[in-house]
Amino acid sequence: MRDLEIIRSKHGFISDMDGVIYQGSQLLPGVKEFVDWLRKEKKQFLFLTNSSERTPLELHKKLLAMGIDIDESHFYTSALATAQFLKTQAPGSSAYIIGAHGLMNALYDAGIPFNDVNPDYVVVGETTGYNYEMIIKATQLINQGAKLIATNSDLTGPSDRGIIPACRALVAPIELATGVAAYFIGKPNPLMMRTGLKKLGVHSGDAVMIGDRMDTDIIAGVETGMETALVLSGVTTRSTMKHYSYQPHYVLNGIGDIVPKK
C-alpha cells in the first residue's frame, strides 16, 4: 500500500458519511480523532453524502448528539446537488417529489415547488414513506412528459438494521414501468464532485476522497483525479473490492487510520 503520508499531506478532504463516519446512529471508531486532526492541521474538509433525507442542520445535530460539533457549512448532500442542478437547468420548474424532507426543503429553497398535477420533473430520493401509490403517480406523470431525476445511484446502504435498499432500488420500478432511465445527480456524477472541490477551494490533485463504496465514492474520486481511500467500515469488503477494474489508492480499516499514531 502507498505511504499514508501522501494523503496526510493533502489540503482538502472529502468524505462520505454512512459507513465512514457513522453506521446508522452509531459513530464509528476513530472519527473523533480524525476530525480533531483535520482541525489541528488546518485542513479543508467536506462531508459529501449521497443520502438526501437530512438537511445540513440535521446532519450537524445528528453528529452533535454523537459528540462531534461540525458546522453546517461542512455538509453537502445529494438533495442540495439535485436542487442546484434543477435551479440551473430549469429555473421556475416544478417537481413531483418522492423523498424525505431533506430533499423537499432543498428543492423548495431553490424555488422548485411540489407539483403532482403537471410537473416538469419527477424527483426520487430516499424515504421510508415510499409506497405503491407514489410509483403509480410517478409513472402517470412521466408518461405525460415529466423528466425523471434521482438524487443518487446507490442500490443499497448501511443502517442500524443492516444493508437496506437505497435510492436506485426505489427508482427502479418507475424506470421499468415507464421505460425511462433516471438521471442520477449524486456521486459519482462529476457535477457533485466539482461542486465539492469548489466549496473546499482546492484542486483535485490536492484532495482526497474517502468512502466505503467502490461504485460511488471511489470511482468518483478516481474520475475526478483525486487520491482515493476505501474504508472497510461500510458495505465493501476486500473480496468484493477486487471485482472492480479500478482500485483505490488506499484500503483502510476505518477513517481513523489516516491519523498519525503518536
From TrEMBL:
<dbReference type="Pfam" id="PF13344">
    <property type="entry name" value="Hydrolase_6"/>
</dbReference>
<keyword id="KW-0460">Magnesium</keyword>
<dbReference type="Pfam" id="PF13242">
    <property type="entry name" value="Hydrolase_like"/>
</dbReference>
<dbReference type="InterPro" id="IPR036412">
    <property type="entry name" value="HAD-like_sf"/>
</dbReference>
<dbReference type="InterPro" id="IPR023214">
    <property type="entry name" value="HAD_sf"/>
</dbReference>
<protein>
    <recommendedName>
        <fullName>Acid sugar phosphatase</fullName>
        <ecNumber>3.1.3.-</ecNumber>
    </recommendedName>
</protein>
<comment type="similarity">
    <text>Belongs to the HAD-like hydrolase superfamily. NagD family.</text>
</comment>
<dbReference type="GO" id="GO:0046872">
    <property type="term" value="F:metal ion binding"/>
</dbReference>
<feature type="binding site">
    <location>
        <position position="212"/>
    </location>
    <ligand>
        <name>Mg(2+)</name>
    </ligand>
</feature>
<keyword id="KW-0378">Hydrolase</keyword>
<dbReference type="InterPro" id="IPR006357">
    <property type="entry name" value="HAD-SF_hydro_IIA"/>
</dbReference>
<dbReference type="GO" id="GO:0016791">
    <property type="term" value="F:phosphatase activity"/>
</dbReference>
<keyword id="KW-0479">Metal-binding</keyword>
<dbReference type="GO" id="GO:0005737">
    <property type="term" value="C:cytoplasm"/>
</dbReference>
<feature type="active site" description="Proton donor">
    <location>
        <position position="18"/>
    </location>
</feature>
<feature type="binding site">
    <location>
        <position position="16"/>
    </location>
    <ligand>
        <name>Mg(2+)</name>
    </ligand>
</feature>
<comment type="function">
    <text>Catalyzes the dephosphorylation of 2-6 carbon acid sugars in vitro.</text>
</comment>
<feature type="active site" description="Nucleophile">
    <location>
        <position position="16"/>
    </location>
</feature>
<feature type="binding site">
    <location>
        <position position="18"/>
    </location>
    <ligand>
        <name>Mg(2+)</name>
    </ligand>
</feature>
<feature type="binding site">
    <location>
        <position position="187"/>
    </location>
    <ligand>
        <name>substrate</name>
    </ligand>
</feature>
